[in-house]
Design a protein that fits this description.
The chain contains 13 helices and 13 strands. The chain has 343 residues and is α/β, with parallel strands linked by helices. It has a domain of 38 residues. Strand 2, helix 5 and strand 3 form a beta-alpha-beta unit. The longest helix is centred in the first third of the chain and has 10 residues. It is elongated and about 85 Å long.
Length: 343
């Protein structure tokens, strides 16, 4: 009996409806696996060594994720094999197990550039904590992938203002730069002066401690911002809040944890804000409960406040966990500690 060819196997595979049976089919042999992966659109891998067999057989993949170390060879193979890729999630998150030194030989700009140049349909990319990625790779990604709308660079410590210059000309809607501590005010100027300002809705700058009021003022040009995280920007003052509170009128969520220089004057910039729902002020102490209340009661949609118990004068015990604003209740979370900062 002649062995079954790929076409016959593909017909059999396509007739299988239950996903578990499809997976069992792929485990029969390398030929069966090759046929099975030719039909998949979604690929998640915890075993990079298998990618050399899987990727060449997966031309229709539009989603790929892997949180394990990957070499430039892996990424170049991904670029060559999966030109239809739209979502690339390579984030190395801290709640996932890894061995000491496991990522010392991770991919760098060379591999990322290969993907950016070959996979022009990319819409969402996460490079969270991939420490060897720098400006060359990010610039290539921002300039080659015109459909990019979601970019997570948190913990990419080699990223500088040069990357933001290219990102500023993109149409990204969600940008995470948390922990990119080389980013400065100049980088925010690049973001605010490019086409990005017309599209960006969510921005995370947590821990980018070289940023000052001068940089945050540029964000006032981003009138479409819905969520802004500027926690632990230790150099910003009330000047920053006056800029964003009066100009970014679509803001719904603002994270100000660790911005210790903020006072009641800065808080009052949000007086009467019509869209604000969440305001986090953990590790901020230079205002009284009366200051918070006077602002909160004018924000008709406010739903959540995060505060320290050691502000100048705390909230009366009788209203410990909520504040009544018109016909709805704003929940309050109180932190008793110092506010711990970690990645």
């Amino acid at each position: 009996m002649e062995p079954l060819g790929d076409d016959e196997l593909l017909c059999i595979f396509n007739s299988i409806s239950y996903w578990g049976d499809k997976r069992s089919f792929a485990e029969v042999s390398k030929q069966f696996m090759k046929v099975a992966f030719h039909s998949i659109f979604w690929l998640s891998s915890s075993f990079p060594s298998l990618l050399f067999d899987i990727l060449p057989s997966s031309p229709n993949v539009t989603y790929f994720d892997c949180y394990k170390p990957l070499s430039n060879t892996h990424l170049k193979l991904l670029a060559q094999s999966c030109p239809k890729l739209e979502t690339l999630r390579l984030g190395k998150y801290h709640d996932l197990p890894s061995e000491p030194g496991e990522f010392d030989f991770d991919f760098d700009d060379d591999g990322l550039c290969a993907v950016a140049n070959a996979c022009s349909h990319l819409r969402e990319v996460s490079l969270h904590s991939r420490l060897h990625v720098g400006d060359a790779g990010i610039v290539s990604l921002a300039t080659s992938c015109k459909n990019l709308t979601w970019l997570d660079l948190e913990g990419c410590i080699r990223v500088t203002d040069e990357s933001l210059k290219a990102i500023g000309e993109s149409r990204i809607r969600n940008l995470n730069l948390g922990g990119c501590y080389l980013v400065t005010d100049l980088g925010l100027e690049y973001l605010a002066n490019g086409d990005l300002k017309n599209h960006l809705s969510e921005l995370n700058l947590t821990g980018c401690d070289k940023i000052s009021d001068h940089g945050i003022i540029y964000l006032s040009k981003m009138v479409g911002l819905i969520e802004l995280n500027i926690s632990w920007l230790i150099n910003i003052t009330d000047i920053s809040l006056l800029a964003i509170g009066t100009k970014c009128l679509k803001l719904q969520t603002v994270y100000l944890t660790g911005c210790e220089a903020i006072t009641s004057e800065g808080l009052r910039a949000f007086n009467g804000h019509q869209t604000l729902k969440t305001l986090l002020l953990f590790s901020c102490y230079n205002f009284c409960w009366e200051d918070v209340e006077s602002v909160a009661v004018t924000c008709s949609r406010l739903e959540y406040l995060g505060l320290m118990k050691r502000i100048k004068t705390p909230m009366p015990e009788s209203h410990q966990d909520f504040l009544q604003i018109g016909h709805h209740t704003c929940l309050i979370e109180w932190d008793e500690g110092e506010g711990v900062f970690f990645w």
